[in-house]
Amino acid sequence: MKLTILGSGTTVPHPKRRSAGYWLETSAGTVLLDCSMYVPRQMVDLGLDWPKLDAIWISHFHLDHVGGLAPFLSGTKHAEGMKKREKPLHIFGPAGLKDLLERFDDAGNYKLFKQPFPLEIIEIEPLETFQIIEGVDTVAMKTPHNDESLAIHVRDQHDSTLVYTADTGFTELLATFARKVDLLVIEASYPKNKTKEKHLELAEAMHIVRKAGPKRAVLTHLYPIWDKFDFAKEVAKYSPPCEVIEASDGLQLEFWGDMINEN
Fold first, then answer.
1. CA atoms in the 13 A half-sphere facing the CB of 15
2. Residue-range domains of the chain with CATH
3. Which residue from 77, 13, 23 is spatially nearest to 45, judged by alpha carbons?
């Protein structure tokens, strides 16, 4: 698999970090993990082949994770690259996703569901296995963030594995869910003294990393307070059991088994 980070930040404006979005290339196709308002532009700026995107995963309904989805669908209706597309675009997410999109649609009579290609909205129940792309097995887990929030575990045809926690409060169940994955993409909103209970601070994120034992971990969803800290020094205090990477916009990680390339 190959992961491109489109947004490593939060809802708070930041000069170097946009809000959430992750482009995942698997052996069977491409998946967009979350879609903030910045994601459509980031896909273009980074030269990603967005007209051939196979699926979108929405972890929950906070705007810094879903706020770009309706504008993206508004744009695909008119994009030259989509006019000859025949394969469907599948959008997966928690219960309530279709209703949310319908409300966006009704707000401006955008006709988001009338695309030049088949569009399917699929609402997922936690712990039920599904294929986000044919040949790519996935399962979601409920997380303690808001009513619908879900983490996702992805395994492709080459047995490469990734877990994306999205926003979450602390639960050791995430360590079980992410056990021995190739790449764990985990939020670490605060370096310390978190002000929001349903997010993670560094000590909590590192506890989950240690319990999960992934081959690599990426800490993301970083609030601006992180600018006052040296990331490497803070992480080193916890004697990490694997390589722990600071997420940054545009960072690309290619991984399979015990190998990883970073660009």
1. 1
2. 2-262 (3.60.15.10)
3. 23
Residues 159 and 1 sit within 8 Å (Cβ to Cβ): no
Q: What is the pLDDT of residues 151-171, one digit of tens each?
A: 999 999 999 999 999 999 999
Q: Taking the C-alpha atoms of 236, 208, 58 and 12 in order, what is their torsion angle to the nearest 10 degrees?
A: -40
Structure-token pair, residue 211? 């319990």
SS3 for 113? coil
Number of CB atoms found within 10 A of residue 22's CB: 24
**At 105, is the secondary structure helix, strand, or coil?**
helix
**pLDDT tens-place string over residues 55-68:** 999 999 999 999 99
225 Cα distance to chain centroid: 21
- Rounded Cα distance between 187 and 33, Å, is 14
Beta strands in 214-258 (DSSP E): 216-220, 243-246, 252-256
Are the CB atoms for 42 and 17 separated by under 8 Å?
A: no
Q: Enter the tokens of residue 25.
A: 């290339």
Instruction: Encode 152-185: b = buried (16+ Cβ within 10 Å), e = exposed.
Output: bbbbbeeebbbbbbbbbbbbeebbebbeebbbbb
Q: Which residues, in sequence order, are CB contacts of 43 under 8 Å at separation 6+?
A: 6, 23, 32, 50
Token pair of 129, please? 């296995």
- Convert the pLDDT of each residue in 199-239 to its tens digit: 999 999 999 999 999 999 999 999 999 999 999 999 999 99
